Amino acid sequence: MASELGMLEERETAARVRVEGLREEVARLAEVLEAAEIELDRRVIAREELVEALAASAVETTAVIEAEAERETVPSPSPPGSIVPPWREGLPVTVLAPDYQRILGVLDERQPAGQEPMKAKEITAELGLQTTSAKVEGVRSRARRLAERGWIVQETSGMFSAGRRPVPDAAPSA
User: Fold this and answer.
1) 3-state SS string over the chain?
2) Single pTM value for the model
3) Count of domains in the chain?
4) Model pLDDT for residues 128-142, shown as the tens digit of each residue
């Protein structure tokens, strides 16, 4: 009986050692995953910033040409990845890129129902996106940009709600 008990204890010890090794491997992989997600977030933001800078340059060039022609035009829909112009009365939502329009749509749907402001993670889920940190940060970045330009309201808690407000003498920044 003692030898059987000793054999079971040896197997239990081996199983404990294996479990502990697997836990260490999981912890190591979690760190690797977190670093990869951070790198992905940085690359997404860098791409968005580059697209905005290029769009701002194109907008400035267009503004110079229009000023020389001395004619006023109605804003046309913006291509995906374009800058977010400051909100002003009469400016249609179609001047925004589709991703920004979708965020506005989610928040505008909640407004009539009198629901509370939304966190970026909730907006991400409502958009049908996975709530990974990269997706949530992308939505948060776009929502902040919309809030800075008066298209939505950012609460002090960092939550977002529907509402338009003019931005005084603001020029789009890259």
Assistant:
1) CHHHHHHHHHHHHHHHHHHHHHHHHHHHHHHHHHHHHHHHHHHHHHHHHHHHHHHHHHHHHHHHHHHHHCCCCCCCCCCCCCCCCCCCCCCCHHHCCHHHHHHHHHHHHHCCCCCCCECHHHHHHHCCCCCCHHHHHHHHHHHHHHHHCCCEEECCCCCEEECCCCCCCCCCCC
2) 0.50
3) 1
4) 999 899 999 999 999
